[in-house]
Amino acid sequence: MAKPVSGRAELLPLLGEVFRAHGYEGATLSLISEATGLGKGSLYHFFPDGKQQMATEVLAEIDGWFEVNIFAPLRSSGDPEAAVAAMIEGVDRYFRSGRRVCLVGVIALGASRDMFAVQVHDYFKRWNDALSRLLSRSGLGARAARQRSTDALLTIQGALVLARALDDPAIFRRALSDVSERLLAPPD
Amino acid sequence: MAKPVSGRAELLPLLGEVFRAHGYEGATLSLISEATGLGKGSLYHFFPDGKQQMATEVLAEIDGWFEVNIFAPLRSSGDPEAAVAAMIEGVDRYFRSGRRVCLVGVIALGASRDMFAVQVHDYFKRWNDALSRLLSRSGLGARAARQRSTDALLTIQGALVLARALDDPAIFRRALSDVSERLLAPPD
DNA sequence: GTCTATAAAGCGATAGAC
DNA sequence: GTCTATCGCTTTATAGAC
């Protein structure tokens, strides 16, 4: 039983870690209650629609974090090298160098994908759009830019899977460095 | 309710699809019963240790399929180009061009990873070893071979995640073609 | 806003008839 | 080998006291 929690803003990150660790199906109200120090009554006070609302709001909070810290800088930058470097560093910190899993990816793979299909789709689409447009602005053709951007996103997701499967965070850091290199390579 | 099933050999693939679609936690005995057309009594006749045994045997069957169709050919081939092409084609067929998810990856991301840690770790390690040794035999340095091999595995996993998240199987096929190219590129 | 108590349904697993 | 019935427990969710 952790320390009780005052506001909804403090609540969402704790909920996020439970969903990350157990997936949507595996995240029981008991686990959530234990992680937050709040009884079920209190949880339903904050989230009248229950578990689904909790996950929806957690996804929205994650989306908001990436919007501010990753997507927006990508959109407003005129310097591809600096922007890519900043994205890589932000991603490395967010995923704790491969020791933290991507909740959006976890949900994308599971049965709960249908329930959150729009949020999952949007998160990756907006990331992909922001990144590929940055590459386009830097002189790359639209198709090549889109291709490199998609490759970057999928490499990050795959690195999280493999790093966890092999219990080797170095896989993630190495993949991030590869991503950076491929993103900034001269046009083919 | 699907048609009843006679032997254990017919049972495992059906179980596999349920675990794939719902994850370990989400795969309830009711869903399994429905998918196989077998009552719980029959399921426990085949798998006395219940759900955990089912998943263990499904993972073992998947591992066996990859051992025969992917890993072994990689180990015995002297022709890297042909071997990589055969691997890519086998992977494309197995994952139905990105429309089917990787159960080992799904479990690696979830809370049930600890329960199946050895099987998950072994699957990827043996794949990685077989592939990186093939590249070494073809003249690549051991470090570069290992690096390219890891990159290939993680790209496949990430492509499955992103293809599902964006509901776009083309992402998977394109990623496979990239993997093939990077695997067979001349030494840096 | 937090709690306890509880409802109703579903869970994994078992027993025993056939 | 398959089934139904059932056990004991946990699940999500609600009600109502404080």
Short description:
Chain A has 188 residues and is an all-alpha fold. Helices cover 76% and strands 0% of the residues of chain A. Chain A has a domain at 56-183: Tetracycline Repressor, domain 2, CATH 1.10.357.10.
CATH fold node name of the domain at 56-183 in chain A? Tetracycline Repressor, domain 2
CATH class of the domain at 56-183 in chain A: Mainly Alpha
Determine the oligomeric state from the structure.
homodimer
Largest sheet of chain A: none
Order of helices and strands of chain A: HHHHHHHHH
Structural class of chain A: mainly alpha
Helical content class of chain A: over 70%
Q: What is the averaged pLDDT score of chain A?
A: 96
The percentage of residues in β strands of chain A lies in under 5%
Shape of chain A: elongated
Task: Quickly give the CATH architecture of the domain at 56-183 in chain A.
Answer: Orthogonal Bundle
Low-confidence stretches of chain A: none
Taking all Cα atoms into account, the compactness measure Rg of chain A is: 18 Å
